[in-house]
Amino acid sequence: MKKGIELIGEYEINKDVEYNFNYDNLYSYADTCRTIIGIIKNEKPDKIICPLRGAYPPIRVVSSQIEDNLIEYVPTSEFLHNKEELVQSALEKIVSEMKEKGIRAPHILTVDTAITGSSIRRYRDLLKKYSPELMTRFGFEDLKYSIVKIWSSKSKKESHHNNIRNIGNKKIEFNDYNLNVDKLFCEDDNILLGIDYPFNLKGGKKAAYIVRIVSKNPINVEYGDKKEIYTPLDNQTTADIFVEIVKNELKNFLLTP
Known about the structure:
alpha/beta, six-stranded mixed sheet, 6 helices
């Protein structure tokens, strides 16, 4: 596990689930991960927020191409009972670190997956809500957020736009990227996500304690008329195998001139 994820243990899942993936969909997923790497290298953020759980698989795929200390893992799932406090605390920690490093205009990039987009819109609202006070407290006049959203869509159309909010002498910039994949694969599947929140609270909410999901379900990939079966080794989980499959495809992209 990359540093920064606070795990309280492991939870083993033995489900009779068969994963059959089409190569074209995996190709699309890897291609989008390549685009994310390009955006990160172009934007040069001071910190990358990985919202948990949804963004964990794509961040694991691209993490080998970026500095580990750039990534901040933040529980942001809508069913968490204290999502707002978690986001506020993470922002305060990040902005404080930027101040200590002497960064004058912090740039925070977030990668997340989206089905309807409601969760990322709520997250964006929280950034708008807490940023002005944090900027005043830590003495920043400029703050930039880049938000990379991965949508489940067959459309190859991608979009990029930005918006600047001026609040007195302060400027908050939102730089939005919308990317598409044929299939998200891992959405709401704790076996493929590799992590989960196991503790339920009253009212249907969950506590923000994270466990590593241990499962040994194989993944079948259809390459035209052929099928390749990927089985987790002793120290691997199904989620690890998924990331490895996509990483191998990503390597082919990165090695192509």
